[in-house]
From TrEMBL:
<dbReference type="InterPro" id="IPR000683">
    <property type="entry name" value="Gfo/Idh/MocA-like_OxRdtase_N"/>
</dbReference>
<comment type="similarity">
    <text>Belongs to the Gfo/Idh/MocA family.</text>
</comment>
<feature type="domain" description="Gfo/Idh/MocA-like oxidoreductase N-terminal">
    <location>
        <begin position="1"/>
        <end position="114"/>
    </location>
</feature>
<feature type="domain" description="GFO/IDH/MocA-like oxidoreductase">
    <location>
        <begin position="125"/>
        <end position="240"/>
    </location>
</feature>
<protein>
    <submittedName>
        <fullName>Gfo/Idh/MocA family oxidoreductase</fullName>
    </submittedName>
</protein>
<dbReference type="InterPro" id="IPR036291">
    <property type="entry name" value="NAD(P)-bd_dom_sf"/>
</dbReference>
<dbReference type="Pfam" id="PF22725">
    <property type="entry name" value="GFO_IDH_MocA_C3"/>
</dbReference>
<keyword id="KW-0560">Oxidoreductase</keyword>
<dbReference type="GO" id="GO:0016491">
    <property type="term" value="F:oxidoreductase activity"/>
</dbReference>
<dbReference type="Pfam" id="PF01408">
    <property type="entry name" value="GFO_IDH_MocA"/>
</dbReference>
<dbReference type="GO" id="GO:0000166">
    <property type="term" value="F:nucleotide binding"/>
</dbReference>
<dbReference type="InterPro" id="IPR055170">
    <property type="entry name" value="GFO_IDH_MocA-like_dom"/>
</dbReference>
Length: 305
């Protein structure tokens, strides 16, 4: 694993009882974080090159800050290693596509960590939609409200709320309905309670029209006291469903279960099975839409478009 910060540690918790995937070593240059990981018995290196040289690896899980996703991925691919990279896969759709081609040219697996695709209730919903169980899907509403904002130091390079949080809902919508966005409007709460958070505003909402006529609402926010909530509502001509993927009652367990399934699915893909997760090309489209919503909401886009 490259990057042993907040999300890297979440992956470690998710994989602690996996029988198929284990974290053999971690690259983490920040000494305080590295020391904590060493105390847990993990070999920790300050550079990826050192880790690659000293460890037999089947693949790399990348959990570095977003602006470093693509260069870290390129480095691992050049070293001949398959990559499972955290979302949003950098900030630039063009670079995301280019890396997809690089991986394909080398015959290496490259997957982006949109863990919702490994949540059993969402996998069932997708299958039921494909089998027309809900009839015509009129409206899909996806929301993600975090318990509390991340530190300003993270928000300054997150890409903003649509690129950091909204990408999950965009990928989920494209994957569940197999329809692209054709029209949208987006808005954002005009300010943040943390002035150091830059363009990473505290909440934002989007309404989009999809290619086959379904409307979708994406709701994002940084304040939901009691715990994070991720919820989905689907209204169809023959049925409806509404459920929380994560809630203050579930805590992080659904995410940990999905992250473990994601890593195990990636390992099977590296072993030759068909991929289940998000490809670089799909992640590039998600990034494009996240940039579009950011711009439509009137928030400055950080990073290259
Ligand atoms: N899938 C999800 O639900 C989810 C949730 C949270 C964060 N994330 C993603 O995970 C990524 C990391 O977020 P985070 O909250 O863990 O940030 P973080 O800042 O807590 O952790 C990043 C870590 O990477 C390390 N690092 C920086 N440069 C490095 C390098 N060149 N090589 C190795 N390590 C390096 C830092 O020292 C830090 O410990 C972000 O891209 C974020 O979007 C995903």
């Amino acid at each position: 694993m490259i990057g042993g910060g907040r999300m890297g540690r979440t992956h470690l918790r998710a994989l602690q009882d996996s029988k198929q995937v284990s974290i053999a070593a971690v690259t983490e240059p920040f000494e305080a974080s590295a020391a904590g990981l060493r105390e847990e018995g993990l070999p920790v290196y300050s550079t990826a090159d050192e880790m690659f040289a000293k460890t037999a690896l089947d693949g790399v899980l990348i959990a570095v800050p977003t602006p470093q996703h693509t260069e870290t991925t390129r480095h691992a691919l050049e070293a001949g290693l398959p990559v499972l990279c955290e979302k949003p896969f950098g900030l630039s759709p063009d670079t995301a596509r280019e890396l997809g081609k690089l991986a394909a040219g080398k015959g290496l697996a490259l997957q982006v960590g949109y863990w919702r695709r490994f949540v059993p209730e969402l996998v069932s919903l997708r299958r039921d939609l494909a089998e027309n169980k809900y009839g015509a899907p009129h409206l899909l509403m996806c929301s993600q409200w975090d318990e509390a904002p991340p530190p300003a130091s993270f928000r300054q390079h997150s890409g903003g709320i649509y690129i950091d949080m909204g990408v999950h809902e965009i990928d989920q919508t494209l994957w569940l309905l197999d329809q692209d966005f054709v029209d949208f409007r987006a808005q954002a709460f005009p300010s943040t309670e943390d002035p150091d958070a830059h363009n990473d505003v505290d909440s934002a909402q989007a309404l989009a029209m999809l290619a086959a006529g379904t409307s979708t609402v994406i709701s994002l926010g940084r304040f939901y006291q009691g715990g994070d909530v991720v919820s989905v509502q689907l209204f169809g001509s023959r049925g409806h469903t509404s459920f929380d993927v994560v809630s203050p009652d579930t805590g992080e367990q659904p995410q940990l279960t999905a992250l473990k399934a994601q890593a195990e699915g990636f390992a099977r893909h590296v072993g030759g099975e068909a991929p289940q997760g998000t490809s670089a090309e799909e992640a590039a489209r998600v990034l494009e839409l996240a940039h579009d919503l950011t711009e439509a909401a009137g928030i400055a886009v950080l990073g290259a478009p």
